[in-house]
Prior knowledge:
The chain is of the alpha/beta class and about 220 residues long. The protein has eight helices and eleven strands. The strands form three sheets. Strands 2-1-3-4-5 form a five-stranded parallel beta sheet, with helices on both faces. Strand 3, helix 3 and strand 4 form a beta-alpha-beta unit. Helix 6 crosses helix 8. The longest helix is centred in the N-terminal third of the chain and has 13 residues. The model has no long low-confidence stretch (mean pLDDT about 90).
Amino acid sequence: MRVLVVEDEQLLADAVATGLRREAMAVDVVYDGAAALERIAVNDYDVVVLDRDLPVVHGDDVCRKVIELQLPTRILMLTASGDVSDRVEGLEIGADDYLPKPFAFSELIARVRALGRRTTVALPPVLERAGIRLDPNRREVFRDGREVQLAPKEFAVLEVLMRSEGAVVSAEQLLEKAWDENTDPFTNVVRVTVMTLRRKLGEPAVIVTVPGSGYRI
Length: 217
């Protein structure tokens, strides 16, 4: 899952981004509304965690632009105000969910994951295919009943492949969904991660390389 965090309180923004990355999400961070619009114009995000009271361009206007562009991106709006009227107004503008500050980080993660599921075809919360069982909420992976310990990027790549339900996923698509914008697109990081993932999942291999196209399960 790829997430954009837009928050002008830099310490909070960076803390949220760090926490989401630990949950195997690819996260980009910006600190004002204008920078958010620039990122949204060039990257495909599953979820935008959007502070409402932003400098340069207000969060409401960022939200309206996402709606205007008819993007599949889901918006979780944050605000320091807990007033019901503010929450209603944010939802009426087009936000998909609303979370007042301060918030429990576990709730933020749950809401981001719930919104991320709504950007794609509805799938069960726990994904199962070819003897693999992946639970995004618990960050658990089992192969034929055996628990497999994965690093965050390995987990993210496996989740993207599982959600494709047998379709081929290109290296470029994996890079876009599992890594942030600071990753060099010309590195072999995808190939190396898939190779390590195959080894950890064990035999028989379930991740198939489709020459010239990508990977599938």
